[in-house]
Specification:
Layout (H helix, E strand, L loop, with lengths): L2 H19 L2 E7 L18 H9 L1 E3 L2 E2 L5 H10 L3 H4 L2 E3 L2 E3 L8 H6 L4 E6 L16 E4 L7 H14 L7 E7 L24 H8 L6 H31 L6 E6 L5 E2 L5 E2 L6 H4 L3 E4 L6 E3 L4 E2 L3 H9 L22 E4 L11 H5 L1 E5 L3 E6 L4 E6 L14 H12 L8 E2 L4 H7 L4
Helix pairs in contact: 6-8
Length: about 425
């Protein structure tokens, strides 16, 4: 063998070794997806055959909790491994705050280990303006939140095809916004569950904004919402097929979750952002990849801040100091309490915004306490017998102490206000203010 051939052999061997050592990681965030509208989480409609298959071959976490009921603070917890009170991204007194660039996040810690870090997102709340691109080598933001899942999947596949020769492992964060209102799935998903399709749906939403209650219209909205889920599920089927056919899936982890759910008047409102009930906080977490044992984990309550430690574990990267989440594949903690907060006034804009900003909840998998530090009102629910949170019980003392501890913990993030980027108009378009 010539010296050149030997050199090339060593070069390609080291490339392939590096690639084998570090897996690719795909984090897929389906905005506004409540867990109980997926077949694998018990929904009676066939909305999610692709995700159901992924759940069968991977691990599904049944007690996974969003740590905020709307996009900005929830993504802050996914990015940083911190609770909302710690990273402080969100909205206070009608001013928006992005991510503090001094905080480590899923991209900054993996880039240190030679990962190529990719973001493909579909809403301005997690765009460059809000600091979510920090640590990413490539960060695409589509059309201020009204991109389509099909186009985003195309973009991801195109990037992978054009960069086949890149030997470095990859972190790809793929955020899909279609399930968020307005619900207008393309054909044939518009009539998959809604007989009359999406006609008139937008007008109904504009008129209602959390005030009108119309049971007939509500069921129509749910039909369209489910159609969006089925559409997104099909697009993920395209992505997963390509990952399998190209061989990428052989050494890749796929993580699927959502930032928050959606209310359909279970507690008097529609949409999201303005309460901490389970229709907003119970979101999916499905993880599949090498060495993952198929099954359902229902023993450990968990939340958005666990995603960073899980990703760090897959990549063999140390978890930064101060991260509040745990690696769910190396630690189990059945007694932990998962905090959520970050409520904004949202659609109930006529009421005191401070009242809504002062709410937080803790969840242990079967029980949940919600406390409002402005009104000093508490709610406590036994989800094992009352999953719809309709029967308030006296607040458990341990929960109250945990709520007080969480609420009084000083923040580690001090983000700057995000102003002057048209953000107020965008937030209004999205129905948040
Ligand atoms: Zn969202």
């Amino acid at each position: 063998m010539s010296l050149l051939a030997l050199t090339l052999l060593v070069f390609f061997s080291s490339c392939s070794l590096e690639k084998q050592d570090k897996p690719d990681i795909f984090l897929i965030i389906i905005d506004t997806l409540r867990a109980d509208h997926l077949g694998c989480y018990g929904y009676q409609r066939d909305t999610s055959p692709v995700l159901d298959s992924l759940a069968l071959e991977g691990t599904m976490f049944s007690h996974f909790q969003a740590q905020a009921p709307w996009t900005l603070p929830s993504h802050g917890s996914i990015w940083t491994g911190l609770s909302v009170k710690a990273h402080m991204a969100g909205m206070r007194n009608m001013v928006s705050y992005g991510l503090d660039s001094r905080l480590n996040n899923i991209a900054t810690i993996l880039r240190e280990e030679n990962y190529v870090t990719l973001g493909f997102v579909n809403v301005m709340l997690i765009s460059h303006s809000f600091g979510f691109d920090n640590g990413f080598d490539h960060y695409s933001v589509f059309d201020h939140g009204h991109g389509r899942a099909g186009a985003t999947v195309d973009e991801v596949l195109e990037w992978l095809s054009e960069n086949k020769a890149n030997p470095n492992p990859k972190l790809a964060v793929i955020h899909l916004f279609d399930v968020h209102a307005p619900y207008d799935p393309p054909a044939p998903y518009d009539t998959r569950f809604a007989v009359n399709g999406a006609q008139g749906e937008t007008d109904w939403i504009t008129d209602s904004l959390g005030v009108v209650q119309n049971p007939d219209a509500t069921s129509h909205l749910i039909d369209l919402y489910d159609g969006e889920i089925a559409w997104v599920d099909a697009q993920l089927g395209r992505l997963f097929s390509e990952l399998r056919e190209s061989g990428i899936a052989d050494n890749a982890y796929i993580i699927v979750t959502s930032d928050h759910g959606e209310e359909f008047f279970e507690h008097g409102n529609w949409s999201h952002g303005h309460s901490l009930y389970q229709e907003l906080l119970h979101v999916p977490l499905i993880i599949s990849g090498p060495g993952i044992t198929p099954g359902v984990i229902d023993s450990t309550p968990c939340g958005h801040f666990d995603i960073l430690p899980v990703i760090a574990g897959f990549a063999g990267v140390p978890v930064p100091d101060g991260v509040e989440g745990i690696d769910l594949f190396s630690q189990r903690s059945p007694d932990r309490l998962i905090p959520s907060s970050g409520v904004i006034p949202g659609h109930v804009h006529l009421r005191d915004s401070e009242e809504f900003q002062s709410m937080c909840s803790v969840f242990n998998g079967t029980e949940k306490g919600i406390f409002n530090f402005y009104t000093m009102r508490e709610q406590f629910f036994d989800l094992a017998v009352d999953p719809g949170e309709q029967n308030r019980l006296p607040l458990n003392t341990n929960f109250l102490q945990e709520l007080e501890y969480y609420w009084s913990t000083p923040p580690v993030g001090h983000p700057h206000a995000v102003e002057g980027t048209g953000v107020e108009d965008d937030l209004s378009d999205l129905g948040y203010i």
